[in-house]
Amino acid sequence: MKKYLFLAIALFFSTLTMVEAQSLSQMKAPPRKMPKMDESNILNVEDFEKLMLKSANRVIIDLRSKTEFDNGRLDGAINLNPADTLAFNEAVAKINNKSVVFIYGANKKNAKVETPLIQKVMNTNNPNVYYLDGGFEAWKKKNKPVFQVATDIGGF
User: Fold this and answer.
1) Rounded to a whole number, what is the distance in angstroms from the first to the last CA of the chain?
2) pTM here?
3) Full pLDDT tens readout for the chain, 156 residues
4) I want to staple 135 with a disulfide (CB 3.0 to 4.6 A). Which of 30, 54, 57, 107 is the partner?
5) For residue 124, how many other CB atoms are within 10 A of its CB?
6) How many other CB atoms sit within 10 Å of the CB of residue 69?
7) Phi and psi for 79 in degrees, rounded to 5?
């Protein structure tokens, strides 16, 4: 009789353990809330420049094409062409949470295209991501400094 009682208890606990293990494996992590770009992340030219100048640990991302970037850019900007998905994703993964990230594109018309890219940067859990309202065109219209990328002029 003791033998059967022991087997029944052992069977009960092994069944309980299996049910608990199965329940745990079926549990999913709660979905991570993706930060949303709101008005506090979209800055006009003056506010963008002020914040950029006072931020010591900054990353400036230019989302325009290489040709556009070579024809003029903000000082210190890096060109991350979203068309090169692999390079873009690798660069975004390297951004740390201590950096203040400034992003601009060509103009306001591209904002719908650029918003998912900005969301990728924001999804790194960096709370300090800002977008230039009106893009590079707005920057130039306000006569802000534009830097040229040096080009090869035939070896001279």
Assistant:
1) 100
2) 0.68
3) 655 555 445 554 455 444 444 544 444 444 444 455 567 788 999 999 999 999 989 999 998 888 899 999 999 999 987 778 888 888 888 888 888 999 998 886 655 556 667 667 766 667 788 989 889 999 999 999 999 865 544 443
4) 107
5) 17
6) 19
7) -95, 115
Which residue type occupies 4? Answer: Y
- The pair of three-digit structure tokens given for residue 41, joined into one six-digit string: 């992340």
Q: Which CATH entry fits the domain spanning 39-141: 1.10.8.870, 1.10.3730.10, 1.10.3720.10, 3.40.250.10?
A: 3.40.250.10
131 in Cβ contact with 119 (< 8 Å): no
Residue with tokens 């990230």: 101
Under a CB-based contact definition with an 8 Å cutoff, are residues 43 and 135 in contact?
Answer: no
Token pair 């999913």: residue: 28
Instruction: Give the span between the Cα atoms of 40 and 27, in whole angstroms.
Output: 36
φ, ψ of residue 77 in degrees (nearest 5): -70, 145
The domain segmentation of the chain, as residue ranges, is: 39-141
What are φ and ψ of residue 111, in 5° steps?
-60, -35
Query: Quick one: tokens of 43?
Result: 């800055």
Tokens of 96: 């740390």
